[in-house]
Amino acid sequence: MTLRRRVLCAAATAALALIALGAGPDGAVARAHADDCATPPEMTEGNISLPHLAERLKARQSAAIVAIGGASTMGQAAGSSDLSYPRRLEQNLAKAFPDSPINVVNKGVARQSAKQMLERFPSDVLAEDPVLVAWEVGVTDAVRGTDIDDFAGTLQSGIEQLKNRAIDTVLIDMQFSRSSQTVINFEAYLKALHRVGEVAEVYVFPRFDMMRYWSEQNMFNFDDVAPDDRAKLAARVYDCLGQKLTEVIRRAAQ
Length: 254
Prior knowledge:
Strand content: 5-15%
Strand order of the largest sheet: 2-1-3-4-5
Order of helices and strands: HHHEHHEHHEHHEHHEHH
Mean pLDDT: 87
Distance between the termini: 49 Å
Structural class: alpha/beta
Largest sheet: 5 strands, parallel
Low-confidence stretches: 17-29
Number of domains: 1
Shape: globular
CATH topology: Rossmann fold
Radius of gyration: 17 Å
């Protein structure tokens, strides 16, 4: 890695600190109000089909969901995996589908590329026998400047592996922060991720657009956050993401 690339990566990491690094769990138990999570309806109106999960839920059978991703999947910024959006998703789905025990397995590992996550599929994904995989991906690849075609190819390979095993897939795109935009080229990776999702007929959960909307509407301030408030903010954002992802899954399962 060149000196310039190291400097840019260091700057990018610093810019993402508020949304990727934790400030500790103290006081981070706040839940988001319903209005905090509001987004334009069209933002999540894309076609979504989760036939294997829907079949399981209609039969009132148990279902395992694996959430694989990075630090935000872990809930690192909130200080605890109990405050992560996979945990919120599990809690929300339990209320939405009380007759079907649903277990959301959190397989987040910080600072991994799409390729590194794919290498974990045999041990961390397939071994859990999931009916749905929520794959949060792209931040680390953008920071590292992974070749776009390689990034897209990795996503395609992962989706094919899951489809071949009758496992539904939801891709979750990147986080948004105004400050990170100045040093990270998210746009190319967002386009590649959404293009792969479109071609593979896999729903892409628009986390980037949601967080940008919340920021622009001053619902959540991701950039000028006091250190003592970072964990609280992260917990509320994760709560909202869990709520919105639950809405999408409920719609697909109907």
